[in-house]
Amino acid sequence: MHLPPFSTVEATPADTAGKRRNPSVPDSRVPRPRRFLVCDPRHFAVQYVINPWMQPDTQVDVDLARGQWEALIRAYRAHGHTVDTVEPVADLPDMVFAANSALVLAGRVFGSYFHAPQRRPESTAYETWFKTAGFDVYRPESVCEGEGDLIPAGRYVLAGTGFRTTREAHREVQEFFGVPVISLQLVDPRFYHLDTALFVLDDSNIAYYPEAFSPGSREVLARLFPDAVLATLEDAMAFGLNSVSDGRHVFISPRAEALAVELTRHGYVPVPVDLSEFQKAGGGIKCCTQEIRS
Ligand code: ARG
Fold it and tell me: What are the structural domains, with CATH classification, of the chain?
C-alpha cells in the first residue's frame, strides 16, 4: 500500500487552532433581509416596577439611551435590514419595547394585551400603526405580550408563560395562525419574558439559557433542538439572549462574551450593540425590535 507523505496532509484552519472542525457547521451562514418595526426612545423612563430589573427612583440617561438605540438602527440598516418606526406616545415609557406589541407571521398581526395596566394603552398605539400600514390586527382575549413571549422557530411558535403571556393566549395563537405552539414554562423572574432566555438563530436552531425553564420545558427544548447553543447565567444576565439573528449576523450585547464565542464557533457572526441603558427597564436588543414577517 502506498501512503502519501505526511507533509501533504493539509490541516484545516480549525485543526491548526487545536480544535477539530465541526462538520455539521456550514462554512458560511446565509443572512435573510428582515423588516423591523421600532419605537423612538424619546419618552423612555423607569416610572413603575413590573419586573426585577426595574428599581424605584431609577434615572435614565435619555441621551445615552437614544445614542445606543440609534446605533442599533444603524447596525440593522448597515446589514441590509429595513427599519420602520412608530411614533412614541408620552407617558408610555415602555413603548420603546416594540417586540411586545404583536406577533406578525405571513402578514397577519396577532396584537397584544398587556399584563400590567400601565402598558395596556400601547396596544392601541401599535394597532394604529399596523392599520395605517395596511394590516388587520387581531386583539387577543387573554394576556399576551407579543414577541416577548412568542417566538417563531422553524415550523413552530415557541411560547413562554409563567410571568406574562398566559397558556390561554398560547391556544389563541395556535388557533389564529394554525401553527403548532409549544408552551414553555419560565421559572426565574429575572427572565420573565421568553425573549430574555431564548432566541432563534435560524430556521433550525436556537440559543437559550436552560435554567430559565422548568425541567419538563428544558426537556422539550432539548428534544426539538438537540444542537442548540447553550448560554451561561452570565450571558443571560447580560441580556445576551435578548438578541436578534438574521441567520448569519447576531446583534448581541457585547457583555455576553462567552455566548459570542460560542456563536462564532457555530459559524455565526456576532454584531455587538450595547443597550445597557434599556436594561434598567429589563429590556435589550430584541425587546426593542418587532419583526414584520410577510
Ligand atoms: N419594562 C418592560 C416590561 O417589564 C420591559 C419589556 C421588555 N420587553 C421584552 N420583549 N422582553 O414589560
Answer: 35-291 (3.75.10.10)
